[in-house]
Write a structure and sequence with these properties.
- By secondary structure, this protein is an alpha+beta fold.
- It has a single domain (2-138), classed as PH-domain like (Roll).
- Helix content is 35%, strand content 30%.
- The chain contains 2 helices and 9 strands; from the N terminus they run H-E-E-E-E-E-E-E-E-E-H.
- The strands form 2 sheets. The protein has a 5-stranded antiparallel β-sheet with strand order 3-2-9-8-7, with helices on one face.
- The longest helix is centred in the N-terminal third of the chain and has 34 residues, at 2-35.
Length: 139
């Protein structure tokens, strides 16, 4: 009985965590992952995303997303392992990616695909690397 008293709270917490992950994936990540799947390995290279919005369904929020440049486009993956369930990586092709400024005049990456629209904010140095990467791979 004592084992049950110990395990029950842990099982409840684990269940709530999985529910939270599944719900957060349904706010846009899963649509992009279905339309733009990738089996590319998740590496340590890349840039951390300060926030990511799947429009119009999700509120702006902090993420643990990592953006990695590839010859085909930008690979989006979840940076922290505990957040990865229900969040498979996806690859946005270069032709769907634009660079612009947000409502505050800060640089951001925008994409419009069949999956929906996406707005990602990264640090200015990362944005410059992304823009350079697109020029190198599209030209």
């Amino acid at each position: 009985m004592q084992i049950l008293n110990t395990l029950l709270p842990l099982l409840v917490i684990a269940g709530l965590w999985l529910f939270f992950l599944k719900r957060s994936a349904s706010l846009g990540w899963s649509a992009f992952a279905q339309h733009h799947p990738s089996d590319a390995p998740i590496g340590k290279d890349g840039y951390s995303c300060r926030w990511l919005v799947f429009q119009p369904d999700s509120p702006k929020g902090r993420t643990a997303a990592r953006l990695t440049l590839t010859a085909e486009g930008v690979l989006f993956s979840v940076e922290v392992a505990v957040f990865r369930p229900f969040h498979p990586p996806f690859l946005l092709p270069w032709n769907s990616i634009q660079f612009s400024k947000d409502e505050n005049g800060e640089p951001c990456l925008r994409a419009l695909t069949k999956a929906g629209s996406l707005l990602a904010k990264v640090d200015p140095a990362a944005m410059q690397a992304l823009e350079t990467g697109k020029q190198a791979h599209v030209s």
